[in-house]
């Protein structure tokens, strides 16, 4: 009898062991949210806003980790090679997940294959600004001068593949003009030189340019979005300003490493879409210059692929080669 009871107990324990070995329900520890750009920028602001609400909804802290460097490549590489367990997320942009591959032969990650899109948080428009004392008062005047004197004007950017660079390149492609790109380590340095008269123009994000616009230190000539912005209704679009078909918007999205379990991806997508839909979050996003969107995984993936095709053509038409 004792032997029989002993073996029955062992059998029961063996059945229970797999259940005991199962991991606790996700998430059971803090989640890391990598921002591949410096603190204080739009990507950082979006990440911190989403992380605060997401942590409350998931019951675990969402910890921001800034990993800037090389147009976002450093931080993006780290996420591409992270375990796909739902404990690593990142803020991705048009630069990191649509165009970096066209500028770098040895990127260290594949912008589609190595990631799963979670949520397209929102769209970011740029504005074309010139110094307050500039002789230019319209885009048409700039186009006329560049048509007569190719390469006679300069525009500042934060590097190849950034929204400033893509805006300038798209303008040149459509208007059949040429101007010289002056590369800076960051958009703020370009704005300083713009105000100081060292360069002629910058296609800067609305959030970064707004203090200079409100302070009358720069003039805003146009917005890069397809429609006028609600908080700048008097400013024409680039298309309205004489560059037909012009539309350039950067974007802020959230990605996880490829292979992250589908139930986790679905949960994250639902939670973040709900966060983006909150009125106070939408107000804060707009203050950052981000127009809320909220498309989740499948729709976001389709959008990302369309962006890769669109900007790949712009870059190839410009004769730009990956280095």
TrEMBL record:
Keyword Transcription on entry: no
Q: Which Gene3D superfamilies match?
A: Bordetella uptake gene, domain 1, Periplasmic binding protein-like II
Q: Where is the signal peptide?
A: 1-21
Q: Give the record's keywords alphabetically.
A: Signal
- Which family does the entry's similarity section mention? Belongs to the UPF0065 (bug) family.
Cross-referenced Pfam families: TctC
Q: What is this protein called?
A: Tripartite tricarboxylate transporter substrate binding protein
């Amino acid at each position: 009898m004792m032997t029989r009871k002993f073996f029955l107990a062992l059998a029961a324990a063996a059945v229970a062991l797999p259940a005991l070995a199962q991991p606790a329900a996700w998430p059971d520890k803090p989640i890391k949210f990598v921002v591949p750009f410096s603190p204080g920028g739009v990507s950082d602001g979006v990440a911190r806003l989403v992380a605060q609400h997401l942590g409350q909804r998931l019951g675990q802290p969402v910890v921001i980790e800034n990993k800037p460097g090389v147009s976002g490549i450093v931080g993006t590489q780290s996420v591409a090679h992270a375990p796909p367990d739902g404990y690593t997320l990142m803020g991705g942009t048009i630069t990191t997940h649509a165009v970096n591959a066209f500028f770098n032969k040895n990127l260290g990650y594949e912008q589609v294959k190595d990631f799963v899109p979670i949520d397209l948080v929102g769209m970011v428009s740029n504005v074309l600004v010139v110094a307050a004392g500039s002789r230019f008062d319209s885009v048409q005047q700039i186009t006329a001068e560049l048509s007569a004197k190719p390469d006679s004007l300069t525009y500042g950017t934060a590097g190849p593949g950034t929204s400033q660079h893509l805006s300038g390149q798209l303008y040149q492609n459509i208007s059949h003009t040429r101007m010289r790109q002056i590369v800076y380590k960051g958009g703020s340095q370009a704005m300083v030189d713009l105000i100081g008269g060292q360069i002629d123009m910058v296609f800067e994000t609305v959030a970064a340019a707004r203090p200079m616009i409100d302070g009358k230190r720069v003039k805003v000539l146009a917005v890069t979005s397809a429609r006028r912005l609600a908080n700048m209704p008097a400013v024409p679009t680039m298309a309205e300003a004489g560059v037909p078909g012009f539309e350039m918007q950067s974007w802020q999205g959230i990605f996880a490493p490829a292979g992250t379990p589908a139930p986790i991806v679905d949960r994250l997508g639902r939670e973040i879409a709900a966060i983006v839909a909150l009125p106070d979050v939408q107000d804060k996003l707009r203050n950052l210059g981000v127009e809320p969107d909220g498309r989740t995984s499948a729709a976001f993936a389709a959008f990302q692929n369309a962006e890769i095709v669109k900007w790949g053509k712009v870059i190839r038409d410009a004769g730009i080669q990956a280095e």
